[in-house]
Design brief:
6 helices; alpha+beta
């Protein structure tokens, strides 16, 4: 199926950080995430066996791990732009004492078309969603199997994380319209931000 970017689905964030910080600061991190974005539905398990790219290790240190945090409800795809602005605020609030980045947070969505991630960096593979926000389709459906593109981030392809994304996609198909979160794109452009409570059912 060709991805159009117009399908509502499940919103999630991928949080890359030193595993020690993910464990020690989990309570504070989750509190901040819910305050900035919305009610958390599910968190992935820690998995070993993946090594982060050298550029991230040089910036954030070794022994990095990724957790996926999924949010309650079904979300309009334009809300990825809002989520990217909020995750940038989260990253900035979680910087180390010397100002360097120690958490890398990427918002994404998964639905019946694909799994996509939002970025502030343009590239030939990404389409522009809003001012300063580009989206890249990382995985696509081939029959009933979620297939990665050659450039897909490897941390999302590991067993439990991949299984979690599959479950989220199935859930996005099973919800009726009464559970849909609103399209916040126009309001976001007008006032810059909205409180997280507007996302709740």
């Amino acid at each position: 199926m060709e991805a159009t970017g117009h399908t509502r689905g499940k919103l999630f964030i991928g949080v890359l950080a030193p595993e020690r910080l993910l464990r020690d600061q989990q309570t504070d991190l989750l509190r901040r995430v819910e305050r900035e974005i919305g009610t958390i539905q599910e968190i992935s398990h820690f998995e070993s066996g993946w090594r982060a790219p050298e550029s991230y290790i040089a910036e954030m240190g070794d022994y990095l791990s990724t957790v996926i945090i999924a949010f309650d409800g079904i979300w309009h795809p334009h809300n990825l732009a809002y989520a990217k602005a909020r995750t940038q605020k989260l990253e900035d609030s979680l910087r180390g004492p010397d100002g360097h980045r120690i958490f890398n947070i990427n918002p994404g969505m998964i639905d019946k078309e694909c799994m996509r991630l939002a970025s502030h960096k343009p590239s030939a593979r990404r389409y522009q969603l809003a001012d300063g926000v580009w989206v890249e389709n990382q995985m696509y459906w081939k029959g009933n199997k979620l297939e990665p593109h050659d450039f897909a981030f490897q941390e999302y392809l590991m067993g439990k994380r991949y299984s979690m994304l599959r479950r989220l996609a199935d859930e996005s198909l099973g919800h009726s319209s009464q559970h849909l979160s609103p399209d916040l794109s126009l309001a976001t452009r007008e006032i810059g931000y909205l409180p997280s409570t507007v996302f709740l059912r």
